[in-house]
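Lecture 7 notes: from sequence to structure.

We start with a single chain of 98 residues. Read the sequence below before looking at the structure.
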Amino acid sequence: MHQLSVKYNISESAICTWAKLVERNGFEALASHKSRPSKTYERMVKRLPKEEYEKENERLRKENERLRLENLLLKKVRALVEEREARNRAIGRKPSKN
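Now the structure, written as tokens:
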């Protein structure tokens, strides 16, 4: 166990815990074993005060709308470029590099 711990930079206690899990339940036990959430995660999911929640919700709605509009614009530009290239191909011109 010590050699594995040093080689993979994992604590010996973690390796022993995993070995016991495998002995009792087979290797599938390792796949379904979940660790506890990190402190960072716990801080992230703390409940926001109502006004902060509403502000963040509004900010996200505005960003979502801006992204929707940007997406529509990009689709329109692509369609116009494809249309221009199709016209140029039809009359025998080479597509532009722009």
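The chain has one domain: 2-90. Keep this in mind for problem set 3.
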